[in-house]
Amino acid sequence: MEQQKVSRELTRRELMKGIGVAAGMGLLGVSLPLRAEEPIRIGTLCPLTGAGGVYGPNMQKAVTRVVEKINNSGGIHGLPIRLFHEDGQTNPDAAVRAARKLIDVNKVIAILSTWSSAVTLAVAPICIENKVFEISVSGAPEISDLKDDDFIFRTQPTGIVQGEACAEITREQGAKKVAFMGLQHPAVKPFLEAYTKKVSSWGGSLLDSLIYEANKPSYRSEVTRILSKQPDMILVLGFQPDCTIMVKELYRAGYKGKLLGTSYSFNQKLADDVGEAAEGIFNYGPAPDFGAPAFAAVEKMLGISDPDPYVCQAFDHINLVTLALYVGKDYSGTGIKNNIRKIANRPGVVVYSFEEGLAQLKKGQKINYEGASGPCDFDEKGDVVKTQFLVAQVRKGKFVKMGMIKV
Q1: pTM confidence score
Q2: Element housing 5 (H / E)
C-alpha cells in the first residue's frame, strides 16, 4: 500500500511538472501541439464601429456563416473551428487591445479581416511575435515591407496599385488639372507618389496636395484652398465621415468639376447623407469577381445583393485559412502561412469554397482558390498579385457602375 501511495504521488508530481513545463512554453511563445479534442481557434477583428463600421458586421457574418457550414460538415480532419470576435473599431489602439485578448486569452492561431492600414500595421507586430497568422483588407505599402516572417497577408491591393488605377480613371475622365485632399494616413504618401507619376506621364498635373486632420467639424478652409487652384478634378482619400462634410462644403462653394473618392468613403451612405450634393460624384475601389460562383454564394449566404469588396474578401479569408489548415494538418499560424500559397496560387483546379477545395483535394488534385474577391494568388510578400477596380457614379442618388479598370 505504501509503495502504491508513493507511486501515485510520483505520478501526481510528474503531472504537475509537465503542466508547469507546458505553461512555461506557452509563456515563451512556443506553440504546443493541439490535442485532438480541442477546437481550432480563429479570431476576427472586423471594424464593427468607427469609419469602417458600415462594412464590419457583414464581414464578420460572412466568416461566421462559412465556419458554421464547415463545422456542420465535420470540421477540419474532425476538428471543429471555434471563432472569437472582437471589434477593431477602425482604431489602432483599440485594435491592439482586442488583438491582445484574442491572442493571450482566446489563444487564436489566426486573426482575420483587419480593416484600415493603421489597424493592420498596429496589430501586425503582436501577430508576428506570437506566430499568429494575420490576413487583412488593408492597402498601405508599408505592410509589404514588414519583417513578418510571412505571417502577414492581404487580399487588398497595395496603395501603389490603387494610385496607378486612380490615375487611369483620371485620364479616362479627361481631367488634366487635379487637386488632392488626403487624410493623414500610412497609405497616402505612396498612393500619391504612384498617382502623380502616372498622371504626369500622359500630360496631367497635380495642382495641390493637401493633408487634412480627421474628425473636424468643418473643412471650409481646406476646401477654400483647394478651390483656389481651379482644378477640373478633386481627388479625396479619406474616410466616409470626413468626406461627407467635404462633399457638402464643396457643393455649397459652387464647385462644378469632377469629384473622385474611394468606394469605402464615397459610398452609398455618403450619397444618402448629402442628398443632391452627391449627384455626379465618382468612386472607385477593388472589384469583386461579379461572375464568380463565390460571389453568388456570398449574396445568398447573407441575403444581400451586390456585396461590397470587403465582405467578399472576408469570405475568402476564412476559406483560404481553412483550406491551408486542411492541407497542412498543422493547426497553427505557422501551418497556415506554410500552406496558403499551395491552395491559393496557380496552377491548379479552380475552386471557390472550402467544400469545393476539399472535394478536389480528396481526389489528390492541386487546387487554385479563386473566391468572391477575385484571384487570390500571393507573391513572396503576401500581397495579392492581380486585381480589378470598379468605377461608379452617382446618378439620381444611387451609385451606378460605369466600368472596370484592370491592373
Answers
A1: 0.84
A2: helix 2-27
In the chain (407 residues long), the average pLDDT of successive 10-residue segments reads 39 41 42 63 98 96 98 98 98 98 98 96 98 96 96 95 94 96 86 94 95 94 98 96 97 97 95 98 95 96 94 98 98 98 97 98 97 95 92 97 89
**What does 328-391 look like in DSSP terms, one character per residue?**
H---SHHHHHHHHHHHHSSSSEEE-SHHHHHHHHHTT--EEEEETTEE--B-TTS-B---EEEE
Locate 274 and state its grid cell. Answer: 448629402
DSSP string, 84-141: EE---TT-HHHHHHHHHIIIIIS--SEEEEE-SHHHHHHHHHHHHHHT-EEEE----G
Whether residue 175 contacts residue 145, with contact meaning beta carbons closer than 8 Å, is answered with no
Collapsed DSSP state (helix, strand, coil) of residue 47: coil
Q: What are phi and psi of 49, to 5 degrees?
A: -135, 175
Domains of the chain, CATH where assigned: 40-158+290-375 (3.40.50.2300), 160-286+388-406 (3.40.50.2300)
Instruction: Provide the β-strand partners of residue 233.
Output: 178, 258
